[in-house]
C-alpha cells in the first residue's frame, strides 16, 4: 500500500519508540515503505511548569492527533502512560506493544538505593504519583519538580541539582542508560500503561488498522485495559496521585491500585484478582473499593 507516515515527538526516546514500531511493521511487511514525521508538542515546549498545572497528558498527544486528522500522518506512537483514558472522537488505539519494564527507577550519583538517602535529601520527579508515594515512605524528603527529556533530567542530576531522580525504568533501558539505574522501585505503584507503547490511528482507517493490529500483544492489552478502566473510574490524570498496575500470573489477572494525598500522608491501596478469561470489570471493581474506603475523600480534598 501507500507509504506509511508515523508521527512522533522529536525526543530521543520518542524516536526510539517510533523506530521500534517501524521495525516491527517491517518484520511483517518487509516491502512496506515507512517514514517518520517529527512533531513538536506543547508538552515538549513548556518545560518549566509541572504537567499537572498546564493541562496534563493530552499535551503530548493532541498535536499528533491534529496531524492525523489532516492526513499528514497515518499513525502516532505514544508511551501509553501519556495517553488520556478518553481519546478525542475519530481516533482509536489500534495496538498495544508487549510491555517492558513497568516500574520506576531510582537514579543517583551519590546513593546506591532509596533507603540510603539521608534526611532531607532532594529528589527530582515530574509526577505527583511518584512524589506522593515517595513522601508516604519518607516524609522528610524534599521533592523538586523535574521536567524535560531523559537526557535533560540526567544532566540536571549530574549538575548536582538533586540527590536522586526517579524516572520510568523502561525509558532508561530503551536509551541504553541501564547502567544509571541504581534500583528498580517495585514498591512504587506505576502509572497506568507504564512500559507499554500505544499506536493511535484514525478510527475509520481500516487499512492501517489491519497492518498495525498485528503488533498488538494480547496479554499486555488485557492488563492495560484493566489499568485504564481503573484510571477512568477514579478520574485519574497527572493532576492527582493515582497509581495502578495489573499483571498476568498463573492464568490470573491481579491488579493493585493506590489513591494518595499529594503529601503522601493519607492514602488507600488495595489488590483484586480474577481469572484471565473473566477479568471484565476488574479495574472498576478495584476503583470502587478504593473510592469507598477513603479514596473519594482524598480526591475531593485535592480537587
What descriptive keywords fit this protein?
single chain, alpha/beta, D-Maltodextrin-Binding Protein, domain 2, Double Stranded RNA Binding Domain, five-stranded mixed sheet, 34% helix, globular
Written account of the structure:
- The protein is 34% helix and 25% strand.
- The protein is α/β, with parallel strands linked by helices.
- The chain folds into three domains: 4-98 and 196-216, Periplasmic binding protein-like II (D-Maltodextrin-Binding Protein, domain 2, 3-Layer(aba) Sandwich), CATH 3.40.190.10; 104-185, Periplasmic binding protein-like II (D-Maltodextrin-Binding Protein, domain 2), CATH 3.40.190.10; 230-302, Double Stranded RNA Binding Domain (2-Layer Sandwich), CATH 3.30.160.40.
- The N and C termini lie far apart (49 Å).
Structural class label: alpha/beta
Distance from N terminus to C terminus (CA atoms, Å) equals 49 Å
How many whole angstroms does the radius of gyration measure? 19 Å
Strand order of the largest sheet: 2-1-3-10-4
Strand content: 15-25%
Number of domains: 3
CATH-defined fold name of the largest domain: D-Maltodextrin-Binding Protein, domain 2
Estimate the mean pLDDT confidence: 92
| Overall body shape | globular
Main beta sheet strand tally, sense and closure: 5 strands, mixed
Order of helices and strands: EHEHHHEEEEHEHEHEEHHEEEH
Low-confidence segments: none
CATH homology-level superfamily of the largest domain: Periplasmic binding protein-like II
Number of strands: 13
Helical segment count? 10
> Can you give the helix content as a percent range?
25-40%
Gross CATH architecture of the largest domain: 3-Layer(aba) Sandwich
Level-1 CATH class name of the largest domain: Alpha Beta
